[in-house]
Protein backbone atom coordinates (compact mmCIF):
# COMPACT_ATOMS: atom_id res chain seq x y z
CA UNK A 1 0.00 0.00 0.00
CA UNK A 2 1.23 3.46 -0.88
CA UNK A 3 2.45 5.65 2.00
CA UNK A 4 0.45 8.62 0.71
CA UNK A 5 -2.77 6.58 0.87
CA UNK A 6 -2.00 5.55 4.45
CA UNK A 7 -1.30 9.16 5.45
CA UNK A 8 -4.46 10.38 3.72
CA UNK A 9 -6.49 7.64 5.43
CA UNK A 10 -5.10 8.50 8.87
CA UNK A 11 -5.79 12.20 8.35
CA UNK A 12 -9.34 11.49 7.14
CA UNK A 13 -10.08 9.23 10.12
CA UNK A 14 -8.61 11.82 12.52
CA UNK A 15 -10.68 14.56 10.90
CA UNK A 16 -13.91 12.55 11.18
CA UNK A 17 -13.22 11.56 14.81
CA UNK A 18 -12.44 15.15 15.78
CA UNK A 19 -15.66 16.38 14.17
CA UNK A 20 -17.60 13.62 15.95
CA UNK A 21 -15.98 14.53 19.29
CA UNK A 22 -16.69 18.23 18.76
CA UNK A 23 -20.33 17.49 17.85
CA UNK A 24 -20.76 15.32 20.92
CA UNK A 25 -19.34 18.04 23.17
CA UNK A 26 -21.62 20.62 21.54
CA UNK A 27 -24.68 18.44 22.16
CA UNK A 28 -23.53 17.92 25.76
CA UNK A 29 -23.17 21.71 26.14
CA UNK A 30 -26.73 22.26 24.91
CA UNK A 31 -27.95 19.52 27.26
CA UNK A 32 -26.12 21.13 30.19
CA UNK A 33 -27.36 24.65 29.43
CA UNK A 34 -30.92 23.43 29.04
CA UNK A 35 -30.80 22.07 32.60
CA UNK A 36 -29.89 18.43 32.11
CA UNK A 37 -29.93 16.31 35.25
CA UNK A 38 -26.23 16.21 36.11
CA UNK A 39 -25.03 15.53 39.64
CA UNK A 40 -22.00 17.44 40.91
CA UNK A 41 -19.13 17.12 41.57
CA UNK A 42 -18.04 15.39 38.36
CA UNK A 43 -14.69 13.88 39.30
CA UNK A 44 -13.74 12.28 36.01
CA UNK A 45 -14.99 14.77 33.43
CA UNK A 46 -11.50 15.86 32.50
CA UNK A 47 -7.99 14.97 33.53
CA UNK A 48 -7.12 16.72 36.82
CA UNK A 49 -10.30 18.84 36.78
CA UNK A 50 -13.13 18.41 39.23
CA UNK A 51 -16.30 20.15 38.13
CA UNK A 52 -18.29 21.45 41.10
CA UNK A 53 -21.10 23.37 39.42
CA UNK A 54 -22.99 23.95 36.20
CA UNK A 55 -20.91 27.05 35.43
CA UNK A 56 -17.69 25.08 35.87
CA UNK A 57 -18.99 22.43 33.51
CA UNK A 58 -20.08 24.96 30.87
CA UNK A 59 -16.70 26.71 31.08
CA UNK A 60 -14.85 23.42 30.70
CA UNK A 61 -16.99 22.29 27.77
CA UNK A 62 -16.50 25.62 25.98
CA UNK A 63 -12.74 25.31 26.50
CA UNK A 64 -12.78 21.84 24.93
CA UNK A 65 -15.00 23.05 22.06
CA UNK A 66 -12.44 25.72 21.18
CA UNK A 67 -9.59 23.24 21.58
CA UNK A 68 -11.19 20.61 19.35
CA UNK A 69 -12.31 23.26 16.86
CA UNK A 70 -8.75 24.46 16.48
CA UNK A 71 -7.53 20.89 16.08
CA UNK A 72 -10.17 20.28 13.39
CA UNK A 73 -8.93 23.35 11.51
CA UNK A 74 -5.31 22.20 11.85
CA UNK A 75 -6.05 18.69 10.56
CA UNK A 76 -8.09 20.26 7.73
CA UNK A 77 -5.08 22.35 6.69
CA UNK A 78 -2.75 19.35 6.85
CA UNK A 79 -5.21 17.34 4.72
CA UNK A 80 -5.31 20.09 2.10
CA UNK A 81 -1.51 20.38 2.08
CA UNK A 82 -1.00 16.62 1.77
CA UNK A 83 -3.57 16.49 -1.04
CA UNK A 84 -1.73 19.28 -2.84
CA UNK A 85 1.62 17.53 -2.36
CA UNK A 86 0.22 14.29 -3.78
CA UNK A 87 -1.75 15.63 -6.73
CA UNK A 88 -0.11 18.92 -7.67
CA UNK A 89 3.34 20.03 -8.67
CA UNK A 90 5.96 20.26 -5.96
CA UNK A 91 7.58 23.39 -4.55
CA UNK A 92 4.73 25.84 -5.04
CA UNK A 93 3.99 28.97 -3.04
CA UNK A 94 0.87 27.29 -1.69
CA UNK A 95 2.97 24.53 -0.17
CA UNK A 96 5.47 26.99 1.30
CA UNK A 97 2.66 29.02 2.84
CA UNK A 98 0.92 25.85 4.05
CA UNK A 99 3.99 24.52 5.86
CA UNK A 100 4.64 27.91 7.47
CA UNK A 101 1.01 28.37 8.52
CA UNK A 102 0.71 24.87 9.97
CA UNK A 103 3.98 25.25 11.88
CA UNK A 104 2.98 28.60 13.33
CA UNK A 105 -0.49 27.35 14.26
CA UNK A 106 0.94 24.30 16.05
CA UNK A 107 3.25 26.51 18.12
CA UNK A 108 0.49 29.02 18.90
CA UNK A 109 -1.92 26.20 19.73
CA UNK A 110 0.37 24.54 22.25
CA UNK A 111 1.27 27.83 23.95
CA UNK A 112 -2.34 29.06 24.16
CA UNK A 113 -3.49 25.61 25.27
CA UNK A 114 -0.93 25.53 28.10
CA UNK A 115 -2.01 29.00 29.26
CA UNK A 116 -5.70 28.13 29.01
CA UNK A 117 -5.24 24.93 31.01
CA UNK A 118 -3.30 26.86 33.66
CA UNK A 119 -6.07 29.48 33.94
CA UNK A 120 -8.82 26.85 33.90
CA UNK A 121 -7.16 24.82 36.65
CA UNK A 122 -6.61 27.98 38.66
CA UNK A 123 -10.26 28.96 38.31
CA UNK A 124 -11.74 25.53 38.98
CA UNK A 125 -9.42 24.46 41.79
CA UNK A 126 -9.13 27.97 43.27
CA UNK A 127 -5.39 27.57 43.62
CA UNK A 128 -2.35 27.88 41.46
CA UNK A 129 -0.91 24.59 40.34
CA UNK A 130 1.85 24.12 37.82
CA UNK A 131 2.13 20.66 36.33
CA UNK A 132 5.16 20.25 34.13
CA UNK A 133 4.38 18.28 31.02
CA UNK A 134 7.45 19.50 29.23
CA UNK A 135 7.96 16.51 26.94
CA UNK A 136 4.57 17.06 25.28
CA UNK A 137 4.96 20.83 25.18
CA UNK A 138 8.43 20.77 23.65
CA UNK A 139 7.54 17.96 21.28
CA UNK A 140 4.76 20.05 19.76
CA UNK A 141 6.94 23.16 19.66
CA UNK A 142 9.58 21.11 17.82
CA UNK A 143 6.92 19.76 15.45
CA UNK A 144 5.76 23.29 14.67
CA UNK A 145 9.34 24.44 14.13
CA UNK A 146 9.89 21.46 11.82
CA UNK A 147 6.92 22.48 9.67
CA UNK A 148 8.29 26.03 9.47
CA UNK A 149 11.70 24.59 8.52
CA UNK A 150 10.05 22.51 5.79
CA UNK A 151 8.40 25.68 4.54
CA UNK A 152 11.80 27.35 4.23
CA UNK A 153 13.22 24.33 2.41
CA UNK A 154 10.28 24.37 0.00
CA UNK A 155 10.72 28.13 -0.53
CA UNK A 156 14.40 27.61 -1.45
CA UNK A 157 13.46 24.70 -3.71
CA UNK A 158 10.78 26.85 -5.35
CA UNK A 159 13.40 29.51 -6.15
CA UNK A 160 15.76 26.89 -7.58
CA UNK A 161 12.94 25.44 -9.65
CA UNK A 162 12.06 28.89 -11.05
CA UNK A 163 15.71 29.56 -11.91
CA UNK A 164 15.97 26.15 -13.55
CA UNK A 165 12.80 26.77 -15.57
CA UNK A 166 14.18 30.13 -16.76
CA UNK A 167 17.48 28.54 -17.79
CA UNK A 168 15.78 26.05 -20.09
UniProtKB/TrEMBL annotation:
Pfam family name, one: DUF2975
Tree of life domain: Bacteria
Keyword Transmembrane helix annotated: yes
Residue runs in coiled coils: none
Keyword RNA-binding: no
Segments crossing the lipid bilayer: 12-37, 57-78, 99-120, 132-151
Keywords assigned by UniProt, alphabetized: Membrane, Transmembrane, Transmembrane helix
UniProt name for this protein: DUF2975 domain-containing protein
Organism: Autumnicola edwardsiae
